[in-house]
């Protein structure tokens, strides 16, 4: 698929660069407007769980993120480009027009698009848009937006859509009624209950331990698994995709109406930013995890909204607009460099991450949904003489959850042990065999000979602590989980992150205990997935024998009795295990070949894998401990020299020593652990 001129070749250094990208992304949509301009349908014949009218409303509404930003800027906009969107709001809200969007009903997908339509009304100066409209058009818009009142909707980020509808009615449309103000207040009060800590909110009320027990009781009484939809998860919906983004826009547009709440949101943005920047590497790549990843560069939306909101006193490394600018523009530059396969030949965005991928898609992803990505480009609302654009960007600094709603591939998107901006993650496309359910950064269990596999999903509350590794104090996390709903096996996993001593390694320690006797059990655990093809001939990477004194290999698979390393063009991933104490536990190492198109970053991948065969099963109360050391390095983003990188980074694996009473390290840095 061809790159998109104006985006793929964009340097993303200035406002004029971003403006070029905005126009390049909007123009391919123009041929797909309906005659009345109220809908856009990209000619891809796929469906969603909601109706086609709502899907085509997405096509009209989602580009409003940047259309509104263009109108918000003091420069005269390109009216020829944006005029169809101005016409569309007139026809779409007119119940007498054949392109009327329809009335808003309970749980209606059209509620989502209310936020973009409201953003348009709030962002555009009144004299430029609202006051130029015919009174009948104004009445239609007011009537249509007002239909969202008192409608049932998911108690999640959707509440923000009604908040902005009410805010637009109040501030732009002049509808200052008790009903509008009461609805606004009640929704905000419920949204505020989603807050958890450190600037992060759940996408709904956080699931309690009591609900865990209630669900377990339901299972014991009825045999029905996963009966409750409540979640304990945070993802980009907590930040750039939804909640933080919306809070920041609320600061921008409602500061005069709600000063106390907006000041609290400013502090939450500071707390959130203190950690969120770590989700982006020095090249601008975001760590892909969670749902709706087809929104792609919307991952950087927090930085755009933060600048628009004018939040001050941000923590390091987001202290200044120059810092925030660097994070946003590096992210856009990364997408420009990786955009060769994200556009259809007509220039419209496709569904996927760095290439088209329907395994990744959600059941609510229409061909038009992808334009949620434009959230990160609202930065064009700032004038060219704004300090954000005038000041040079600063360089990159040195320096147990689950989702209860059964979204597609939610275990892969939320419940793996690790996620990476360099290696991405893999999604399943079928339930039969491990090849269809790639086990990268996953410990998978099978009790039917490997036909079906169970992985970490719903967990107990995570616990956190700290240990010392070579005079460096590092955090560790421990969580207990059950591969199967009957809880016949409980796994307690402790994660030790990379350290200064071992920057390319993290460690997983699994204590696996049987609550009842079991028959034969198979286990598989993988590291990060990597490109499986040689650069020169596109053939599968060969297995090679490397002497420990050599400097490594550029392309190939190195396998020993208890480790496997896969190296490809400067990237390398591997796993190494400590041999289990249980003698009847057979294991093998391999570079596992999953089905194609399951990894987000590459279409053909290999996963370093250890497989265990517990031939005689477990006795009730019996437990085993598995230690998996996971290696990953990418010369694209690390300090390692270009390939072949030094083998000593792979050969110098951490060593875990179990003790009775303490968790520490010895003089050599070996980790002593009581589990």
The CATH architecture of the largest domain: Alpha/alpha barrel
The residue ranges in which pLDDT falls below 50 over 5 or more consecutive positions are 661-667
CATH C-level class of the largest domain: Mainly Alpha
What's the total helix number?
16
Fill in the CATH topology of the largest domain. Glycosyltransferase
Largest sheet: 8 strands, antiparallel
Helix content: 25-40%
Distance between the termini: 51 Å
Task: Report the strand count.
Answer: 18
**What's the rounded overall pLDDT mean?**
90
Q: Based on CA inertia axes, which overall geometry fits?
A: globular
| Helix/strand class | alpha+beta
> Largest sheet, order of strands side by side?
4-5-6-7-15-12-11-10
Radius of gyration over alpha carbons? 26 Å
Organism: Clonostachys byssicola
Protein name: DUF2264 domain-containing protein
Pfam family, one: DUF2264_C
Domain DUF2264: 14-396, 406-654
What does this 3D model show about the protein?
The two termini are 51 Å apart. The strands form 4 sheets. An 8-stranded antiparallel sheet has the order 4-5-6-7-15-12-11-10, with no helix packed on it. Strands 3, 8, 9, 13 and 14 form a 5-stranded antiparallel sheet that branches. The chain is globular, with a radius of gyration of 26 Å. A hairpin with a 5-residue loop joins strand 17 (664-665) and strand 18 (671-673). The protein has 2 domains: 15-205 and 234-390, Glycosyltransferase (Alpha/alpha barrel), CATH 1.50.10; 410-673, Beta-galactosidase, Chain A, domain 5 (Distorted Sandwich), CATH 2.70.98. The chain is built from 16 helices and 18 strands. With 675 residues, it is α+β, with helices and mostly antiparallel strands. Mean pLDDT is 90; it is low at 661-667.
